[in-house]
Every structure is written in structure tokens, then in C-alpha cells.
Amino acid sequence: MDFNLSEREKMIQSAAWEFAQKAVLPQAAHIDGSGEFPAELAREMGRIGYYGLPYPAEYGGGGAGYVAYVLVVEQLCRASMTVGAIAAVSILSEESIFRFGDEKQKRGFLTPLTSGNILGCFCFTEPATGSDPRAISTKAKPDGEDYVIEGQKSFVALAPSASQAVIFAKDETGRISAFVVPTSASGFVLREPCETLGLRGLGTSVVYLDGVRIPKENLIGKKGSGYEIMLEAISLERVGVAAQGVGLAQAALDLALDYARQRTAYGRPIAEMATIQWLLAEVASRVEAGRWLIYRTAFVRDQGREIRSESAMAKLFCSQVAVEVTRMAMQVHGAYGTMKSLPIERLYRDAKMTELYVGVSEIQRVIIASHLLRE
Fold this sequence. Notes:
Elements: H1 7-34, H2 39-48, H3 66-77, H4 81-100, H5 103-114, E1 120-123, E2 139-143, E3 146-156, E4 164-170, E5 176-182, E6 188-193, E7 205-215, E8 219-220, H6 226-262, E9 264-265, E10 268-269, H7 274-302, H8 308-333, H9 343-354, H10 361-374
Parallel strand pairs: 1-4
Antiparallel strand pairs: 2-3, 3-7, 4-5, 5-8, 6-7, 9-10
């Protein structure tokens, strides 16, 4: 068992850290405060190649694997979880097309995403679905050589900046299918943005599908295979959310260490007090445990194995790490930690999002338990 990163992975990790610190961190507070999508940073990540890291070069990717993907997401989230989430969320539509699309779809729909020329969004959640795909009400009805899609999608990240969407709808058989839809299509309507506690600036929006017409060749995989496609794509994004949680938690630890060294009480730095040292030790231990959990999960995926249970474990644990670590880091800061002028307040809000989006923690427990009981 080798716990060492390859030389290429180390280079990717180092470059991502440098980009995060120099380009992302100076804009992190503005992104959160304004709620504006960081379009130029998103374009720059595309130019660097962060959207296609796991995928083969023949489809515009970097061929670096899924470990490289989580390394980059982790480093980006040390500066801004929103920016890291842009890279992480992008994998949803990419994985759907890569795993289930035909050769023409990979060339035409996947390559522009992985090469960073466009962004894609993933339209699954609806007002009544939550984590229950059976409640999907969006319909895709055949009409000649086309499908016509009608419905509404909620919490669609990247929607205002995406040029392409993967949309899940019930086809004429009553089963769920997945379709590639250009966001410029007539009837693809962006509605109100979702004002969320954290992850501000991710462009999360409501989308109306009002008679969107697409050719039948835009069906991904087999008719009725949408649920399987969704499960496969979501399993990768859960690892991405776990990496977001670890990156954010590392940032909270860094802030807590700096503050503890500088802040004095009773004539000495609070870092010398046992109560503060206990908090710092607990935080560091949890961050390290979460980090190796996501690395292992990504490694398993690089071996070609499915990770539905492993990714649920990673998301469950690392989201808890993010929430608990930011809470403890705020305790180190005391009352000053609640001030919006200090970054720990933003991290505290962002951390909660990791327990909620891409499946709440309770659903992750159900997935894990179901896997255990089948063994």
C-alpha cells in the first residue's frame, strides 16, 4: 500500500495551491459578499485544465485521474469553497456523458466541457423531489425526430454561465432518461437565483423548461437509464463535496493557528493555553482523517471500481469534519470569529452547505447502510 502521491500529482497539487493563493484568495470575500459568479476565474480554470483532469486526452481531458481532481478541489477550497465547487460540480455532466454517451456525444458534448471551452450544469433536483427520483415530474415527450421537454428544476449550480445542461426527465415509458440540452434552446428559461447561506456566487438558480425541443440523438445512453446515470455521476460529485469540506477545514485550521499565535491573553499568546491546544489538536486530527478518506476514494475510482458506498462515507464524514472544524476554529477566535470582516465567518457558513447539497447526510447514511446490509 503506497500512500505517496505521484510526481505529477504533487505538481498538480502545488500548482493548484499557488493558483488558489494568488488568484482566488484575494477575491474570496468579494465573491461571498456580492454573490456574483467569478466568471474570469472560471474561465482561467478552464484554460489551466481543471475541468478535464480525470478524462482522456482524446476527449479534451488531462488524463491525470480522479486523485488529481480531488487534489485540485481541495486546494481551491482552501481559498474559496465557491471556486472549488465550480470545478467540482462540473464533473456531474462530464461523468454522465463520459460513462454513458456514445462516441459522437463524447466528441460533441464532452470535449467542449473537459477542454474548458464551456461550462455545463446538471438539472436533476425539482421542488418536490429532494432525494427521491421517483418524484420527478419533468416530462420528455417524443415528437417526430425530437423530444420536447417540459418541467422545472431547482438548485441548478452554474446555470447562468452554463452553455450546456444534462437534464433528467421522465420519457414516454414513464422511466427517467437523461438528455443533453443547449441552454440557448428556446424555452430554457433561467428564473430567480437561489440565495443560500453559503456557497454564494455559485450561480445556483431555478430553471424552467418550457417546451424545450432537442433531437432524439441527444438522449444519453439507453432510454430509461437516467437513474443509473444520475447515481454514477453523483457518486463522483460526493467525493468532490468531501474534498471541498477538507479544503475548507484546512483553511479553518490555518486561520485558527495564525490567530492563536497572534492573540494574547494574560500576557501570553493563547496558543500556549491548554484549552486552545486541545481544540487545535482535535481540528488537525479530523482534517487529516478526512483527507486520506477522500484520497482513498478517488484512488479506488482510478482503479475502475464503482464508489457509491465509499463516496457516501467520504461525504458524510468530511462534511461533518467541515462543520465541526469550523465551529472549533471559531471558538479559537472567540467573539471576533463572528465578524464578517474575518474569513472564519464565511467558512462557517460554507461548511454547513457540505452537509446539505448533493444529498443530505441522512441520505448518505441510508446509502451506506443499504450497502452494508447487502454484503
